[in-house]
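Predict fold of Response regulator transcription factor; 228 aa.
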Amino acid sequence: MAGEKKVKILLADDEPTILQFLDLGLTGEGYEVRLAANGTEALREAEQFRPHIVILDIMMPEMNGFDVCRRLKEHGGNVAIIMLSAKDAVEDRVTGLTLGADDYLVKPFSFEELLARIQARLRNQFPNLLGGVEIGPFRIDERRGEMLYRSEALSLSPTEYGLLKFLVLNHGIVLSKTKILDSVWGYQFGGEENIVEVYIRSLREKLGDKEHRLIRTLRGAGYRMDLP
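Predicted 3D structure, encoded as tokens:
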């Protein structure tokens, strides 16, 4: 697995066969894994282990996954939660996501799909653990604070780097100016929304995106990064 520091994953499920299967598979992929057989144990392990990712079953004894998810998010910290459920009910997915879950998988699922979801969470929340993240023509090197486009290093200010990284990691998603300001400039930013336009214009120039095919403007909605 790429990266110098091991990614820590906590598995919480009351089915021993699932725990054993995922433990074996994820350990083989190079992850550091801890197990919990119920909700109470999951909270205790999370406090001691400080995982980057928690794979959390909903139906568990002592404390269900929804309550564990809520408690983990209330305590703060940058932890990604992927919820597992035997139910495909929309209300379960909505409840989990509303409580702060970052992703949702319905049982039965393929191990390859779980790996893909884990990698997606790492790219979005812990890119520094991956060393370099390649997405389309971009490579993000979080350790060096460097962005490469078509193998060429871009000369970016810290704000330009943060904005471009946010656009690339969320490619294909329409991002409003408010969302961009909150995520890149921070909730305390007191300036005008037009600052986003200024930085988008600068990024387009540096990327040679004269026709706006890479960073698209969607009038009344925001911007979307479209990768080839």
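The first strand starts at residue 8 and ends at 12.
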